[in-house]
Amino acid sequence: MTQVFRLAALVLLALITLSAQAQTLAGLGRPSPGRQVIDGIIVKVDNQIVLRSDLETIYQQQLQQAEGKPLPPDIQCKILQSLTLNKLLLAKAETDSVVVSDEQVTGELNRRMSYFVQQIGSEKKLEEYYNKPLRQLKEELRVQVKEQLVQQKMQDQIAGKVSVTPREVRQFFNKIPKDSLPYYSTEVEVGQIVKLAKPDAKAEQATLAKMNDLRAQILAGASFAELAGQYSEDPVSAKQGGELGFFGRGQLVPEYEAASMRLQPGGLSPIVKSQFGYHLIQLIEKKGNTFNTRHILMKPPTGGTDVDMASQELLKLRTRIQADSLTFAKAAKDNSEDKETSGNGGLLQNRRDGSSYLPLDQLDPAIFFTIDTMKVGSISKPLPYRTDDGKDAVRIIWLKSNTPPHQANLKDDYQKISTAALNQKKNKALDEWFARNRGTVFIEVDPQYADCKLLDTEQ
Length: 459
Hints:
Residues 185-285, 288-398 form the PpiC domain. GO terms for molecular function: peptidyl-prolyl cis-trans isomerase activity. There is one protein chain. With 459 residues, the protein is α+β, with helices and mostly antiparallel strands. The chain has helices at residues 2-16, 52-66, 75-95, 102-120, 123-130, 134-159, 166-174, 201-219, 224-231, 235-238, 254-261, 304-322, 328-335, 339-342, 365-371, 410-437; strands spanning 41-45, 48-51, 183-184, 187-196, 243-248, 272-274, 277-287, 290-298, 358-359, 383-386, 392-403, 406-407, 443-445. It folds into three domains: 2-175 and 409-452, Porin chaperone SurA, peptide-binding domain (Triger factor/SurA peptide-binding fold, Orthogonal Bundle); 184-198 and 303-406, Chitinase A, domain 3 (Roll), CATH 3.10.50.40; 201-298, Chitinase A, domain 3, CATH 3.10.50. The strands form four sheets. A four-stranded antiparallel β-sheet has the order 9-4-11-10. The protein has a four-stranded antiparallel β-sheet with strand order 5-8-7-6, sandwiched between helices. Strand 6 (272-274) and strand 7 (277-287) form a beta hairpin. The longest helix is centred in the last third of the chain and has 28 residues, at 410-437. The chain is globular.
């Protein structure tokens, strides 16, 4: 069963953090040329189902990752076991009333979509690749993201308190055959502190004046949709006349939602400020707790002076860190405006395993060429760049460590080995949970897959 859980992690990873080059967005991927799959239910776990297309999607991803090497003969059974175990987690979560909030789902969905956009190059390229607007891609992924968060919450409840001691880590490492120790390429730990360029008062006032003018035109009878297509700086919705589609409570930023819920159909909001800029909002329709709106978004422009001010703030922080009056981690936590890294002491995270160790050949080119000539422990000067959501910003970069290629050992790779040992121990806790709970749900398997022995804890 432990091997099954290892594959379960791969299945979740494939469905969650797939790259635009080697993998497809599960449920959104374009069909392979000349390949037609007849879909249908192959496993039922209470009210949860596994489709044949779910199995096929993951299997094709495994083939791509194998790069021509043969896969184990039982790989499809292993994948199906993983999918079934995930459905069992969902089934038990339903009976145990384990839920996640809409805010969590929306935040995680936005984070993942930003990652997909970064991987493929731009929102436009992502839309062109799947021939769908970004908001449709988000809605088609929403159910999967919610299920994955619920599964993770269930796993955290089952094994979240499991920990390992240094002695257990050493015992785990010593059991690995010497000829099976992994070989690691060059890896680095990189931190950043980010400051966004803030528009000055004149830029804010000019943007507000434009928004007020557009609002006056709409109140005088001008078409909101036409003005949105012409002026809105939200490129996705602008193509649809500013229309966003239906969203529920907690799925949009609070300022936007609050203004929308106060409107009647056809009503026009005052100018609303959010983290994305200034909005004019028109309510199209309400259905229960969901609402459909269109908006015009404008962002006050930032210029060289704004970037310079952000750079000056970072220079002061850099000086304090270099004088040992402030640690980089503390400075990042208290000052960085990049939410994804500030809580981690500014360290960039490896999306594959959650560690802070990044393979050198997988770094963002801008970071790679910055650290290429840096010594370990040094901090770069402020560097202008554009955030994933297109904002002007400045950052300083810290090279925490640089580990040359080597075979795994406890001295250099304790964090990775500790993580592996912890995962093994958590898998054991999950095994025991499944042994106790597999008989508490109704399971039906398509006869074609009966030989897979789903939920057999003896495997």
